[in-house]
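Tutorial, part two.
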Amino acid sequence: MARDLTRRERMALERVAMREQDADRRRVNFDEVNLGYTAEMAIAEAERCLLCARPTCIEGCPVGIDIREFIRLTADEEFLDAADVIARSSSLPAVCGRVCPQENQCEGTCVLARKDKPIAIGHLERFVADFAREHGRPPTHDEVPKTGKRAAVVGSGPAGLACATDLIKAGHDVTVFEALHELGGVLVYGIPEFRLPKEIVKAEIDGLAELGVVFETNAVIGMIDTIDDLFEVEGFDAVFIGVGAGLPRFLDVPGENLIGVYSANEFLTRVNLMKAYEAGAQTPLLDLYQKTVAVFGGGNTAMDAVRTAKRLGAGRAVILYRRSEAEMPARLEEVHHAKQEGVEFRTLVSPIELLGDDEGWLHAVRLQRMELGEPDDSGRRRPEPIPGAVEEVAIDVAVVAIGNNPNPLIHKTAPDLEQTRWGTLVADPETGRTSKRGVFAGGDIVTGGATVILAMGAGRRAAAAIDDYLRTEVWDPVS
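Running the prediction step on this input gives:
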């Protein structure tokens, strides 16, 4: 049982640091960087929780996990019961515990954050989820009668998996269609092994299959079947679209077609999904050994790409970012780990041209130095060029990680789905209802690039609305 500590005593306890691989060792392997808590460490961290009467951390969680209760159970060494509490709200706890930006969500709203030491909610979620998996105990769920209704989920990323979980628990039959040959969406092709081991993703998906979710891979909806086909030919009663935003943005500068220029999508997919770093890989990358690799961008994808380049032998791996480090959207932990691993950071620079040799190989980038002006729509100060401040820097490989746009394939085959001028689908933020009867959408295909947990929250909200629609057949499309 947890110690009987006063509020003052709990507030005096130090946050328990996560164990990590040594930086010199991990920069040359793809093993997971964070090593997790021991049971003793998890209990010690859980004992710091004040068990607030009004737990603001829950308000900061996009999927509404009962954080107070699962941490209380963890402090009492009831780890499996804690896992059941998390499973009521999250289908991917081992994933979210590893990759979600807790500092901006649940931990950011923890009352202890005012003293800069919030409860390590993400680390505790990871520990509990790993403990349950390693002890062969799937979360318990209440049995519900089958409704006879069928729902199709397009995309097996976070939004689709969260939606499928809640629908199968509600008694509906669910089939998930995935365009690629591996399930998991961005969790498998976008996030490196050293941050999210693929065996973790597989275990979470296997748990959904045991609940009865059917998965179909190599199923490109819009090519094999259209949305209308899912209704009229396959006989589904509702469709959820959670295909993410997988179309890479580029710099729109001269030289982007040079040999040695990658989008982050291609670079990370080749490494994460197709194991390009292994000898004899069928989809190799350019040899990065002792080369200079520049990654353009300041988000988590940029950090994933630059840290991957370092592990592939890059002599120099450099982040080039047009704002200052304070404006970087990447998680603080990812920036910290990148620096530990030898990644260089150059801020307030923007590429204006990629330069190549006579044979079409990249060899340099021309950079415009920037300064920060007034805030833009994102709330961050807008970068503005400094007149005449241009420099040329030698690089061998460039990776562009400045965001993604939605793939237009589904809209081309379902023109009655209303979209925005950015190519995202128009959907009610609370229900996921679209302009097409029976079709719901959520995640990055609606919001543009966001986080795993926000996509899951959208999937859960849509699942509740789909359940209501399947039971009532009442349709109120998004206006």
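The longest helix spans residues 452-472. In part three we will examine how such features are distributed along the chain.
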